[in-house]
Amino acid sequence: MTPEYRPVRPSNPPAFNIPGIVLATIALLAAIHFVRMNLLSEDSDFRVLLDFALIPACYSLPIQECLSRPSGADLWAPFTHAFLHGSWGHLGANTLWLVAFGTPVARRLGSGRFVLFSLAGALGGAALFYIMNPDLLQPMIGASGVVSALMGGACRFALGAPGQLTSGAIALAPRMTVAQSLSNRTVLIFTLIFFATNIAIGSVGFGGDGASVAWEAHLGGFALGFLAFGFFDPVPWRNTHH
């Protein structure tokens, strides 16, 4: 095993045991949203969105609002958009999925790799969203790309793990190759439902709070998490084949 990876094998793991890095992530997202909703003026919050949300048109068109952004905004926006949410409902939905899929991934990767993997998921979601909406001026925000990447990563070891494994043992389950994952019935059905649902959402433009759903970011994040999980996985390759 790599030196920094120290898996824990509790004999009787508690029923409710969320990794600290997942709780810290949720707390950070909630704190940011609380500040935006309760402590910032409308103008100040607009400035936050302009400077930290992903605005595809800012990469493609000479728009005055985009020119007023800090010089580094184009570099950090593909990551910082994931820290902003449109409503408490939006944040709550992402929190539920973050707990469900972030827990097994965080246990397996450890805190440092979990953070890097999550940032990569944000970038993957932002990339596909931009590719499909290069001239869109509306800001794209939310951790959905990150959550989707965690789903994709979980497909490589957790969803296809034997049902009798404990939550702690799932973190050490063999990592499947991409081909093996797509040959696993549970993973294949989950992936097909995920893509079909998001494509359907995109086709009807469904969304809450007067905003559309960034389904492209969901697909981009999932694809990156699914395909690139092996680059972040600290479990030795020899332990992935039995």
From TrEMBL:
InterPro entries: Peptidase_S54_rhomboid_dom, Rhomboid-like_sf. The keyword Ribosomal protein does not apply. It comes from the Bacteria. The chain crosses the membrane at residues 15-34, 83-102, 114-132, 138-159, 186-207, 213-232. Keywords: Cell inner membrane, Cell membrane, Hydrolase, Membrane, Protease, Transmembrane, Transmembrane helix. It is a multi-pass membrane protein. Its main location: membrane. Residues 74-228 form the Peptidase S54 rhomboid domain. GO terms for molecular function: peptidase activity. The keyword Cell membrane applies. GO terms for biological process: proteolysis. It is found in: Membrane. This is Membrane associated serine protease, rhomboid family. The lineage of its organism: Bacteria, Pseudomonadati, Pseudomonadota, Alphaproteobacteria, Hyphomicrobiales.
